[in-house]
Amino acid sequence: MKLKDIKNGSIYYNTKNSRPERVICNTFSSSRVVTESLNFFNRKNQSAVSTRHIRLANNAEVEKYLTKVRKGGLITFLGKLLRPKKIA
Q: What is the model's pTM?
């Protein structure tokens, strides 16, 4: 895939790691982009990926990524809501 065709915020499939990822910076270098993926407990993980290892994600891959984001957002929200408050 050509660097000029890659858009920030779009979801691409990382063929090296076999997972959908969101591009957050396509100006990292002339052949690499920075992506953000969800991993253990939906923590966001940023990494540089070569443009030869990504392709545009299909509908099923996009839905898989968005489902993880939605679940992680709910869990994070509930965790913050139920966490005991610190008294200063």
A: 0.69
